[in-house]
């Protein structure tokens, strides 16, 4: 699960990245691009904490999300470097779009909606370029009697229509996720979380004129969060109280990132390890088994399932079993968020 951090220059991307890594993870330099940075962030989960209390495992594994901060040469915004910037985002599962909503000496007053639109338009134009190039290619092939690409044409045309209207592809997922378009990594089709980066004193969403579909918003105060991330736990608690902040905005960002990608967690438990397994929402037990180990998928017999809330209410696995809350499910069972699963399998 990888999220790319995008946004206009000076929007606060680096600040936010530093806050995220300072608070919850390790940053490692990326390999392919010299200055690209990737942070692996732990998704905190109270359910894991509870299960750890219960099972006292040797190992604990929270779900992780990777955040990628593409390199960008300061002050350079020619087509080539912009193309490279977006190519790094292209391989991500979703986009965190950082939008400046603080006044800055260098950049002046905030124009959050205009800034947002500008970046959105860049993505739409980039996708339009991809679609048009592919259509030209197919037309050329057809002239030479090669027909493989032909079935893609109506789907590409539907994408083109949307893009020409200035509409991001994420507004109609069924168009761009058609199996025939599988190889394309459209930017505007990726799920997006808009991070409205406010000044320290402001905790409100800016008023925008246009309503956005299929977009979540989180207000962050990037600089404040970065300061917070570099404090000790005691200092941070005092600070949070002084600013009357309930929960670090970063936790909200992480939670929203997770939800935006349509991920849920199931858990495996035991004295060896308590572990969260992030999976796409809606997949059956057999497929989820494959996430744990291909052997389990292959030799699948049954999934022994108890809902986290039931286990918590009963206090122990045995008690839950006695109360009839531990179910034996087959291959087709759709895994729910919070399921604790013990796979029975043959090898
Ligand atoms: N007041 C205020 N200033 C901020 C905030 N976030 C970032 N800044 C400042 O804005 C400037 C730009 O922040 P960066 O995090 O470097 O922005 P960036 O998007 O990484 O910029 P580029 O990498 O140049 O595109 C810095 O001087 C930050 O200190 C914020 O939440 N409030
Ligand atoms: Mg930066």
Care to describe what's here?
This protein has 347 residues and is of the alpha/beta class. It has a domain of 64 residues: Roll (Ubiquitin-like (UB roll)). β2 and β3 form a beta hairpin. α1 packs parallel to α7 and α4 packs antiparallel against α5. The longest helix has 32 residues. It starts with a strand and ends with a strand. About 1% of the residues have low confidence. The site of magnesium ion has 2 residues, from α1.
Could you say which structural class the secondary elements and strand pairing correspond to?
A: alpha/beta
Question: Which blocks of ≥5 consecutive residues have pLDDT under 50?
Answer: 29-33
Radius of gyration: 23 Å
| Tally of DSSP β-strands | 13
Shape: flat
Mean pLDDT over all positions: 89
Q: Which CATH class of one domain?
A: Alpha Beta
Strand content: 15-25%
Topology as H/E string?
EHEEHEEHEHHHEEHHHEEHHEHHEE
List of distinct ligands in this structure: guanosine-5'-triphosphate, magnesium ion
The first-to-last residue Cα distance is 29 Å
CATH architecture descriptor name of one domain = Roll
């Amino acid at each position: 699960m990888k999220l790319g951090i995008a946004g206009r220059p000076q929007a606060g991307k680096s600040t936010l990245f530093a806050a995220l890594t300072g608070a919850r993870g390790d940053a490692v330099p990326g390999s392919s691009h010299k200055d690209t940075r990737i942070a692996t962030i732990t998704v905190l989960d109270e359910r894991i904490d509870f299960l750890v209390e219960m099972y006292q495992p040797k190992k604990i594994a929270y779900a992780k999300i990777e955040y990628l901060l593409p390199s960008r040469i300061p002050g350079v915004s020619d087509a080539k470097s912009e193309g490279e910037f977006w190519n790094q985002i292209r391989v991500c599962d979703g986009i965190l779009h950082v939008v400046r909503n603080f006044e800055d000496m260098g950049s002046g007053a905030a124009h959050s909606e205009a800034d947002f639109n500008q970046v959105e338009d860049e993505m739409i134009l980039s996708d339009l370029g991809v679609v048009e190039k592919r259509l030209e290619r197919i037309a050329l092939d057809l002239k030479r009697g090669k027909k493989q690409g032909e079935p893609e044409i109506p789907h590409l045309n539907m994408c083109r229509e949307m893009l020409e209207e200035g509409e991001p592809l994420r507004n109609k997922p069924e168009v761009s996720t058609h199996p025939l378009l599988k190889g394309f990594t459209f930017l505007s089709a990726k799920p997006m979380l808009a991070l409205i980066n406010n000044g320290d004193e402001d905790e409100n969403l800016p008023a925008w004129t246009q309503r956005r579909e299929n977009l979540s918003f989180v207000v962050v105060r990037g600089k404040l969060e970065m300061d917070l991330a570099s404090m000790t736990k005691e200092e941070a608690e005092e600070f949070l109280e002084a600013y009357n902040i309930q929960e670090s905005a970063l936790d909200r960002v992480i939670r929203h990132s997770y939800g935006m990608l349509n991920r849920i967690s199931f858990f495996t438990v035991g004295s060896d390890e308590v572990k969260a397994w992030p999976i796409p929402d809606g997949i059956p037990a057999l497929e989820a088994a494959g996430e744990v180990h291909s052997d389990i998928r292959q030799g699948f017999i049954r999934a022994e399932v108890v809902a986290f809330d039931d286990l918590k209410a009963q206090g122990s696995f045995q008690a839950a079993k006695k109360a009839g809350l531990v179910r034996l499910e087959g291959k087709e069972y759709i895994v729910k968020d919070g399921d604790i699963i013990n796979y029975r399998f043959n090898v």
